[in-house]
Specification:
Blueprint lengths: L11 H67 L5 H67 L1 E5 L5 E6 L11 E6 L6 E6 L4 H14 L2 H16 L1
Antiparallel strand pairs: 1-2, 2-3, 3-4
Helix pairs in contact: 1-2, 2-4, 3-4
């Protein structure tokens, strides 16, 4: 594919300057991603602390309810021999005790659900952070290479998990004309959400499927550039 590109002498200094600017932008992108992960992690820890405080409060409520239940049970024992009026009082106390026992069970269920939710969210945060670090280490050197060979630049697409890949030198009649596509990386399986100029969706899907199977970003970028060049002919 490189042989089919026009032989243009960019000049070493100009190429080095472009590569330096790309590296700065890419480093800033990665730094922003890491800062976002740290901010989300700190916010999550604050939320966990609040949940833990709620858990301690509910535990104290359970202990208080248990004490009251014990006190009521002692009262019931002492009032067995009382009159019908006292028996009605005992019945009311028993009803209250049952209600509190039901509330205690409900609180215990909420505590168990909260613990499970904390564990799931913590695991998701850790997995997300690992995925970001691994993807950054894998992509950076390869992106530097393909930027210089494919006349490529990468931009934000206005969303946290979306990137815009812009190619030049794809139209033989106008080397400055741009062609681009947007890649959604929110989930494990990436997807192309927008392409200009219009390209056959089946061809794009084949490129994305290969990317999701082998994670070879360079091959994916080369394939997408070929589709864009073909669409402009």
């Amino acid at each position: 594919m490189v042989d089919s590109l026009p032989n243009i002498n960019f000049g070493f200094d100009d190429l080095r300057d472009r590569m330096a600017r790309f590296t700065d932008r890419f480093d800033e992108f990665i730094a922003k991603g890491r800062r976002r992960v740290l901010e989300e992690r700190n916010q999550f820890r604050i939320h966990v602390a609040e949940l833990q405080e709620d858990q301690r409060t509910k535990k104290r409520e359970i202990e208080l309810l248990a004490q009251k239940t014990s006190s009521h049970a002692q009262s019931v024992t002492k009032e067995v021999a009382e009159t019908a009026e006292m028996q009605a009082t005992i019945a009311e106390i028993t009803r209250q005790r049952d209600a509190r026992a039901e509330h205690r069970d409900h609180v215990r269920a909420e505590i168990a659900a909260t613990k499970k939710q904390i564990s799931q969210r913590l695991a998701a945060q850790q997995q997300h952070a690992k995925a970001l670090d691994a993807q950054a280490r894998f992509n950076e050197p390869e992106l530097n290479f393909w930027q210089s060979h494919l006349c490529l630049r990468i931009e934000g697409a206005g969303m946290a998990d979306r990137l815009k890949f812009v190619f030049t030198h794809v139209d033989e009649r106008d080397w400055e004309r741009e062609a681009w596509f947007e890649l959604d990386t929110e989930k494990r399986d990436y997807r192309v959400v927008s392409v200009r100029p219009k390209v056959e969706s089946e061809d794009v899907e084949r490129c994305v499927e290969r990317l999701n199977e082998n994670r070879e970003l360079g091959i994916f970028l080369k394939g997408m550039r070929e589709l864009l060049v073909k669409a402009l002919k």
